[in-house]
Design a protein that fits this description.
Elements (H helix, E strand, L loop, with lengths): L4 E10 L9 H7 L4 H11 L8 E9 L4 E5 L4 H9 L14 E4 H11 L8 H14 L2 E4 L1
Parallel strand pairs: 4-5
Antiparallel strand pairs: 1-2, 2-3
Helix pairs in contact: 3-4, 4-5
Protein name: Large ribosomal subunit protein uL11
Subunit structure: Part of the ribosomal stalk of the 50S ribosomal subunit. Interacts with L10 and the large rRNA to form the base of the stalk. L10 forms an elongated spine to which L12 dimers bind in a sequential fashion forming a multimeric L10(L12)X complex.
Family: Belongs to the universal ribosomal protein uL11 family.
């Protein structure tokens, strides 16, 4: 028989740097989950990702206080900021452009994020990433 799910916890944690401090500790503590066990498992799973890369994770909490978790790829905005060599997006996106990215860079990001995007092919994934770039104040060059 399957375990009874009591809830899902969504967090964004830097790769390889999970520790019991907020936001990890309080989020897992509310559900009565073993915080150190999660931290060790998460850090082990993300050790081949560049340290510090923001990694979204969905933790499934079960009634017997056990858990499973699934990691996702880093947010598109993180990859776009790296490609454009920026610290942050534009404060007034749509009015001011603060950088540019090429279609080749967008295709590369779309291929990396393909598993987490709601798209059937790379071309439609490119449209999603290009939209994110524009909303950050980046110019998309063909």
């Amino acid at each position: 028989m399957a375990k009874k799910i009591v809830g899902y916890i969504k967090l964004e944690i830097p790769a390889g740097k999970a520790n019991p401090s907020p936001p990890v500790g309080p989020a897992l503590g509310q559900r009565g989950l073993n915080i150190m066990e999660f931290c060790k498992a998460f850090n082990a799973e993300t050790q081949n990702i560049e340290p510090g890369t923001p990694t979204p994770v969905i933790i499934t909490a079960y009634a017997d206080r056990s858990f499973t978790f699934e990691t996702k790829t880093a947010p598109a905005a993180y990859y776009l900021k790296q490609a454009a060599k920026l610290q942050k997006g534009s404060a007034t996106a749509g009015k001011t452009t603060i950088g540019s990215v090429s279609m080749d860079q967008i295709r590369e990001i779309a291929e990396a994020k393909m598993v987490d995007l709601n798209a059937y092919d790379v071309d439609s994934a490119c449209h999603i990433i290009a939209g994110t770039a524009r909303s950050m104040g980046l110019e998309v060059k063909e």
